[in-house]
Design goal:
By secondary structure, this protein is α/β, with parallel strands linked by helices. It is 39% helix and 15% strand. It has a single domain (4-222), classed as Copper homeostasis (CutC) domain (TIM Barrel), CATH 3.20.20.380.
């Protein structure tokens, strides 16, 4: 079975490029320099209206660490409640304690607010002090997916850890490798990890996705 390809996009044009290149799903964010934050209303509405593939959105009030103040957490709650009926297919977020542990209480509350839409725990996971424990906590919170590089700078560098996570997760949650995933390494990454979903920005230069790279990523997964 062909693995699923998710493309992270930061601009309206990139969403169109991702779709035309053959992506299966879009993760919509703003501010690539900060690693992605919540998209604004105008961008969200435009993308949802223009594409026919699923769109998941980042819920992140700011760049920086993933330990949020009560005000920031309430902002995330409000955003989920406001946007869950906007035509999107799911949410992407992650909350940690100051000690680098999954904030189970707050994460569970957000997952419940998002229901019935699925939630992905993003690469805040890679900052956890104990990934085995973190995986069990993310499952307990009710997430359906984890976006991770296997705690390394890139998914290829973390490939063996990703393989461990895929095996440990079994059918309880999907492990989606991300972090410098490109057409030149995605086939090897798939072979090592056994993952069934992959995440890439497909950016060759600048902040815009490359249609040729999206296409090449998808073709590599079909071989």
């Amino acid at each position: 079975m062909t693995a699923l390809l998710e493309i992270a996009v930061f601009h309206f044009e990139s969403a169109l490029i991702a779709q035309s290149g053959g992506a299966d799903r879009i993760e919509l964010c703003s501010n690539a320099r900060e690693g992605g934050v919540s998209p604004d209303d105008e961008l969200l509405k435009a993308v949802v209206a223009a594409v026919h593939i699923p769109v998941q959105i980042m819920v992140r009030p700011r760049g920086g660490n993933f330990s949020y103040t009560n005000h920031e957490f309430l902002q995330m709650c409000s955003e989920i409640e406001k946007r869950k009926h906007s035509g999107i297919s799911g949410f992407v977020f992650g909350i940690l304690t100051e000690d680098g542990i999954i904030d189970v209480e707050r994460s569970t509350e957000l997952v419940k607010k998002a229901y019935p839409l699925p939630c992905t725990f993003h690469r805040a996971f890679d900052e956890c002090v104990n990934i085995s424990e973190a995986l069990e906590q993310v499952i307990k919170c009710g997430f359906t997916k984890v976006l991770t590089s296997g705690t390394a700078s890139t998914a290829m560098e973390g490939a063996n850890v990703l393989q461990y996570l895929v095996t440990r997760a079994g059918n309880r949650i999907s492990i989606m490798p991300g972090g410098s995933v490109r057409s030149g390494n995605i086939r090897e990454l798939q072979s090592i990890t056994g993952a069934s979903e992959f995440h890439s920005s497909a950016i060759v230069q600048g902040e815009m996705a490359s249609e040729a790279e999206v296409w090449a990523l998808k073709q590599a997964l079909r071989v």
